[in-house]
Amino acid sequence: MGFSTFLLPLLVSLIFHNFQHSSSFSLSVEKFKEDVIVSSPKGKFTAGFYPVGDNAYCFAIWYTQPPHTLVWMANRDQPVNGKRSTLSLLTTGNLVLTDAAQFMVWSTNTATSSKQVQLHFYDTGNLVLLDNSDNVVVLWQSFDYPTDTLLPDQTLTKNSNLISSRSGTNYSSGFYKLFFDSDNVLRLMYQGPRVSSVYWPDPWLLNNNLGIGGTGNGRTSYNDSRVAVLDEFGHFVSSDNFTFKTSDYRTVLQRRLTLDPDGSVRVYSKNDGEDKWSMSGEFKLHPCYAHGICGSNSYCRYEPTTGRKCLCLPDHTLVDNQDWSQGCTPNFQHLCNDNNTKYESRFLGMSLVSFYGYDYGYFANYTYKQCENLCSRLCQCKGFLHIFSEENAFFECYPKTQLLNGNRQMDFKGSFFLRLPLSHEEYENPVQNNDNGGLVCGGEGGGAKLLERQYAEEKENGSVKLMLWFASALGGIEVVCIFLVWCFLFRNKNRKLHSGADKQGYVIATAAGFRKFSYSELKQATKGFSEEIGRGGGGTVYKGVLSDNRVVAIKRLHEVANQGESEFLAEVRIIGRLNHMNLIGMLGYCAEGKHRLLVYEHMENGSLAQNLSSSSNVLDWSKRYSIALGTAKGLAYLHEECLEWILHCDIKPQNILLDSDYQPKVADFGLSKLLNRNSNLNNSSFSRIRGTRGYMAPEWVFNLPITSKVDVYSYGIVVLEMITGRSPTAGIQITELEAASHHHERLVTWVRDKRRTRSKMGSSWVDQIVDPALGSKNYDRNEMEILATVALECVEDEKDARPSMSQVAERLQNHEPYT
Ligand SMILES: *[C@@H]1O[C@H](CO)[C@@H](O)[C@H](O)[C@H]1NC(C)=O
Ligand SMILES: *[C@@H]1O[C@H](CO)[C@@H](O)[C@H](O)[C@H]1NC(C)=O
Ligand SMILES: *[C@@H]1O[C@H](CO)[C@@H](O)[C@H](O)[C@H]1NC(C)=O
Ligand SMILES: *[C@@H]1O[C@H](CO)[C@@H](O)[C@H](O)[C@H]1NC(C)=O
Ligand SMILES: *[C@@H]1O[C@H](CO)[C@@H](O)[C@H](O)[C@H]1NC(C)=O
């Protein structure tokens, strides 16, 4: 007989087969469009053959309404042929899926002698095989065998788990699994082709108490019932005490909890009749924490606007540009061989980057040098993590034998050091390594983007005119100024304050974060903009005192007329998120009508320029050295440690401010338009000159590509100025074009000449160039040589000959004169 159906009065479900007779019912794949079962009474779900590829079908359950979202599959990894495949209920009580009338690819594995076997399809989306004789027994139900989705009131148990799909369009088993572990804790695990690891709750917490911090918050392993369920109101409860409520909690909606192909668990909801799901909750998990997203030798980084992204390590190349999970392969050979000979290596530091797993060991209380030595001696060591443990108050060392599960996190307290062969050519500026190419600095014309910040009163107007004149004289020269932007994450609340920052203002500033001020508030703070402390191309800086008694510097921007408020906000927020002790902190902004103001921390010791020219000679040698080092660190952060690259493009002593402890803070960075990365690259109408004469790299003048090395150049000039006390701009009377390319050559050439002739001199060459204001012996000659040598490398004409800012910082830090 065909199959007859009848409704059990108590069950609001469709019973599409009553197994009273000996014949079996079957659905056939040929009629996959009609041969479906629709749940009753509301017909919310449909079960049937779902096409998953060319001539490939899976028996599945999906929402009847578009977008026909799949919620369950019987044979996700083994689709059946489009001809003669059937789903049949056998007389033995087994529900069987047969491929092309030949192979059984799936079955419920049930057997009963009862004649009362019925298949019910409930409006909950549950497909149930019942033995309906004397007492009703559930033989099998689809709710016990979820694929990647849990429906409301469907319980995840110790015997079931969710496995993600391979991708949004390929429903076969993917790499992520949600399950109850043997210790009763609900976990997410990456099960890759070669490796597997748990990534949620945060594995870093595993050794500690799960109850402390992070995603492990409040988990318990004492309840062994191992059940988790989402109810129809949007409340998820797991027996390990993990629970959350969706944003639309309490509303009755269609809901599903799905382990998505990217390893995140999300709850989606929608109203009846709507054709789009919206996300209403997810397991708290940083998008980059899911392991395996980015394969070996690559790391993941997340940005709210563009989402998650993988990046190869420096000097590595992507294996398969369709598939990041394949990772990257080194451009060099690890010269490690069976003989276990060590090879000469160097280490490239990458802060905030970490790799999980594959430690050669854990080494407590290891200094950087010890850790480096350990890794250098290990043939298979690919690099190491060096992390400061606040709990133990020492550094921990983790040499890595494989670089997997990499990610970059603003709150990561350590650094990764990549091992590279010594002989291999220099690692170039990562900008070139970046798939997005470069971005243009400054954006479209107009001076509004150029934030000048000068605490020293100077002949600014003259200099601005000069710059404008200069810019128009060079009108034909199109300069691509690249601006790769983005430190996206939120201000790191835990940032280490410099010892000098115990001034109340800075501490509060950090804690209070970034906010919007009203114009009247700022007007009041500055007493009607009465105390001017600086003036620059982009605006005037006033000293102000906020209502909480914080002293601040308020920059009032001119020339903002053609910039929309939202654009302005977008830019300002980016800068507000940058956070480094050697970068000036922005406390907030004001955008009201035509008013555009920026509120910064106030630096009581003014700018480096001011201090260098001051007659009181407060900058002794150790201050100068630490200013050079701090500035390098701040710039290195801008260039490399931010999640993207920011070029400053206008490094000069006026833009280096000094706090109460004479620690430098780089100012005036980043107020440029964030450009749509690719669209502007070839559009030279957006380009223009930036920078200040005397400090500008030759690339500007010769119309060469602009990279972070322009900042390195300017930095080098500033350092030479600090050493010698000579300004690169002093006494220039030649024409501007010449000025651009030659005037600072004087300072550079002069120092170079002194070094060249060093052998002929009895004393050290640095004695000849040192700022007379320092006195003849009041400096460390060794440090002086290091600084001068590094500075000269920074001002090499050829950009590739210049070190990167992080290399500079490293060398100054370690007192290493040569790389
Ligand atoms: C889905 O992915 C699996 C594993 O990579 C592959 O074997 C299968 O052919 C894919 N299916 C479709 C329909 O693309
Ligand atoms: C264990 O978890 C279940 C489900 O959340 C809960 O009903 C039960 O009360 C818990 N048992 C204990 C001892 O806490
Ligand atoms: C579970 O969470 C509740 C409230 O969040 C808390 O009161 C309780 O102590 C927790 N149970 C365990 C065993 O940690
Ligand atoms: C091991 O060392 C020997 C002698 O130094 C050398 O000939 C051989 O090629 C090395 N083996 C490998 C695999 O490099
Ligand atoms: C770390 O090592 C240093 C020097 O080896 C030692 O003085 C210090 O006590 C050690 N710290 C801890 C916490 O073991």
Task: Give a short summary of the structure.
The chain is α+β, with helices and mostly antiparallel strands.
What characteristics describe this protein?
single chain, 819 residues, Agglutinin, subunit A, Hepatocyte Growth Factor, 6 domains, five-stranded antiparallel beta sheet, 14 helices, binds 2-acetamido-2-deoxy-beta-D-glucopyranose
Describe it.
With 819 residues, this protein is an alpha+beta fold. It has six domains: 1-145, Agglutinin, subunit A, CATH 2.90.10.10; 149-293, Agglutinin, subunit A; 298-421, 3-Layer(bba) Sandwich (Hepatocyte Growth Factor); 454-501; 513-602, Phosphorylase Kinase, domain 1 (2-Layer Sandwich), CATH 3.30.200; 606-814, Transferase(Phosphotransferase), domain 1, CATH 1.10.510.10. It contains 14 helices and 44 strands. It has a six-stranded mixed beta sheet, sandwiched between helices. Strands 3, 4, 5, 6 and 7 form a five-stranded antiparallel beta sheet that branches. α8 runs antiparallel to α14. It is elongated, with a radius of gyration of 33 Å. The model is unreliable at 1-23, 207-216, 425-462, 470-512, 672-689 and 731-743 (pLDDT under 50). Bound molecules: 2-acetamido-2-deoxy-beta-D-glucopyranose (5 copies).
